[in-house]
Specification:
Blueprint (H helix, E strand, L loop, with lengths): L1 H7 L3 H20 L2 H40 L5 H12 L2
Helix pairs in contact: 3-4
Length: 92
């Protein structure tokens, strides 16, 4: 510590503070269980996959409903599709 203090013009108390900070950081890092972190990531991934699946189902249902509505109306101009999207977005 004395050698580093002289070489870098630092006080021994500064170096001691850094060493203590490093020890606390290492202790905290060792406390974190990698399996816990993995479980968190896996849960987050599962939640995102479920949300994606739900969004895809909703999109498919909206497309099918829009196609059926246009077919029933005999309307190819897209007016029924626009009306569907306006009302569908308020149903959430």
């Amino acid at each position: 510590m004395a050698e580093a203090s002289r070489a870098y013009d630092l006080s021994p108390s500064e170096i001691e503070g850094w060493v203590e900070d490093a020890k606390r950081g290492m202790e905290n890092a060792l406390r974190a269980n990698p399996l816990d972190i993995r479980e968190q990531y896996e849960k987050q991934l599962k939640d995102l996959q479920e949300a994606y699946g739900e969004a895809m189902l909703e999109l498919r249902a909206r497309k099918k409903l829009a196609a059926l509505t246009e077919r029933e109306d005999g309307n190819s101009s897209g007016r029924s599709m626009r009306a569907f999207w306006r009302t569908g977005s308020r149903c959430r």
